[in-house]
Amino acid sequence: MNAGRIFEAVHTALLTNLLLAIACAPLVLVVLTTDPSRTWPLLVLFAPLAGPALVAVFTVLKSYPSPVVKVFWTAWRTSARPALATGTVATVALLVLGVDARWAWGRPVGAVVLPMIVVAMTLLVITTLLVLVVLAERPEARLRDAARAALYLGVRRWYLSLFSLFALVLFEALLAARPAIAIGVVASPLLYVVWANSRFTLTPIGRTP
């Protein structure tokens, strides 16, 4: 890879990070300026915005080296409704499971319930990620079909799903510790790992790595 291609890749990554931050501006603002442990209701409120933003990022990665800004906002507009719906359902479900986990913690029933909640949360996150990748690859896909395929393949190829989940957890850890670095520098590389791995996970339904 020559210097020109390296510069182009770095420019694309940084610009994509900026567009991601703009698309998730309310969420980013809460993370950067408040204590998330106290303002978590705002995080829950704005979390669905990440849906169309992630679809847009995945579309930019798929379309590289096409013009980043045009591809990003076109994908955002195209996927806004289904991606917001996906993000909202996932956020509400995670909130409910989190409340259940908090209730079960320290109780005798927790020994049985908590592992089930952890598994449910894991499946929910993996399925949501795969659905967003499907929306980036095939914007015309129906959410019900995408969710069914994502859940099936996410479980069938669990080792790939766990790798994507690890990359996402790493990003979340960096976001909590160094939000500016996570959003401004690390987001695109880690999301590339998630996208490429998820795309490979979806190959049985016609995706190509």
Give the helices and strands as they follow along the chain: HHHHHHHHH
- The count of strands amounts to 0
Poorly predicted residue ranges: none
Radius of gyration: 17 Å
Largest sheet: none
Count of domains: 1
End-to-end distance, in Å?
20 Å
Dominant shape: globular
Helical content stands at over 70%
Strand content: under 5%
Instruction: Return the structural class.
Output: mainly alpha
Number of helices: 9
Average pLDDT works out at: 92
Keywords: Membrane, Transmembrane, Transmembrane helix
Transmembrane segments: 12-34, 40-61, 82-105, 111-136, 157-175, 181-202
Organism: Actinoplanes italicus
Protein name: Putative membrane protein YesL
From the structure above, extract its key features.
209 residues; mainly alpha; 9 helices
Tell me about this structure:
The protein is mainly alpha-helical and 209 residues long. The chain has one domain (3-205). It contains 9 helices and no strands. It is globular and about 60 Å long. The mean pLDDT is 92.
Quick description:
It comes from Actinoplanes italicus. The protein has one domain (3-205).
Give me the secondary-structure topology.
Blueprint: H1 3-23, H2 25-33, H3 40-46, H4 50-63, H5 68-104, H6 110-137, H7 143-156, H8 158-177, H9 179-201
Helix pairs in contact: 1-4, 1-9, 4-5, 4-6, 4-9, 5-6, 6-7, 6-9, 8-9
Transmembrane segments: 12-34, 40-61, 82-105, 111-136, 157-175, 181-202
Organism: Actinoplanes italicus
Protein name: Putative membrane protein YesL
